[in-house]
Write a structure and sequence with these properties.
By secondary structure, the protein is mainly beta. Helix content is 12%, strand content 41%. The strands form 4 sheets. A 7-stranded mixed beta sheet has the order 19-18-21-22-12-13-23, with no helix packed on it. The radius of gyration is 20 Å and the shape is elongated. The C terminus is likely disordered.
């Protein structure tokens, strides 16, 4: 079943399954999912399923519902789409298949493996282009972290990272801070990255205060006296400053 995973800062606040004919998100108590955020409208967005696809519709809100850098009115969703509502990131994720979907998948798989049939699946050109782009981004996006004696590169291979000073951060920055700001990095289903500020202390993105924002190539995050720069192209190895194949949780 499809679900919504909600983050505020680096904190995952709630996971909610999408049920029924429609599902409303907003500040009101009678919403299916309530977000306590002054930038979220009382009834902010409506999710509904049509022809097997979940759609989201902005309910004419002041601050809007955003996806893929753009303010949306109504749009169909794909797995791992990231929606911005106020100071919250709402991630749409597809759950496991129900019995009917398993039956369809089984029949399709049987057709492709029966003797005398072609086992090669031909995908639409749009789908192929999307998969190529995602593969390219997975192999190239990285962070460059200022560690004092020179930059270190960290390849981004997963879809979620936390950057901060605490022991639970995926990318752990050196030093101890009384006010410990943290940044959550999320990649959506289209391969684009978003940053969300959390913890205690200020975080800036390209010199401006960060709450939630998409990341462009070369974006500079500054917090806790550290500089973290985001890139979409591979670093060229330069001695000890080559990309580190990082699997998370390593101190810098």
């Amino acid at each position: 079943m499809a679900k919504l995973v909600v983050y505020r800062g680096r904190t995952k606040t709630v996971v909610q399954e999408l049920r029924g004919k429609e599902f409303v998100v907003g500040r009101l108590r009678n919403c299916h999912l309530q977000l306590e955020d002054r930038l979220v409208s009382r009834r902010h967005a409506r999710f509904y399923k049509q022809d097997g696809i979940w759609w989201v519709e902005d309910l004419e809100t002041l601050h809007g519902t955003w996806r893929d850098y753009e303010r949306i009115t109504k749009v169909g969703l794909i797995d791992n789409d990231i929606l911005v509502m106020g100071q919250h990131l709402v991630v749409y994720q597809m759950g496991g298949m129900d019995a009917a979907e398993w039956e369809v998948a089984h029949k399709a798989r049987k057709r492709m493996t029966d003797p005398g049939t072609d086992s090669t699946a031909i995908l639409p050109s749009v789908t192929v282009a999307h998969l190529i782009r995602r593969a390219h981004l997975r192999s190239s996006c990285h962070l460059v972290v200022d560690v004092g004696d020179g930059p270190e590169g960290i390849k981004l291979e997963d879809d979620t990272y936390t950057v901060g000073f605490g022991p639970g951060a995926d990318v752990r920055l050196g030093g101890r801070k009384l006010l410990a700001p943290e940044v959550l990095l999320l990649r959506d289903g289209r391969g684009r990255w978003f940053a969300s500020a959390g913890g205690r202390g200020a975080v800036s993105l390209n010199g401006e205060s960060l709450v939630v924002a998409p990341l462009e190539d070369g974006a500079l995050l500054e917090f806790g006296g550290k500089n973290v720069r985001f890139h979409e192209a591979l670093l060229r190895p330069t001695g000890k400053h080559a990309i580190i194949e990082d699997s998370g949780g390593h101190g810098l």
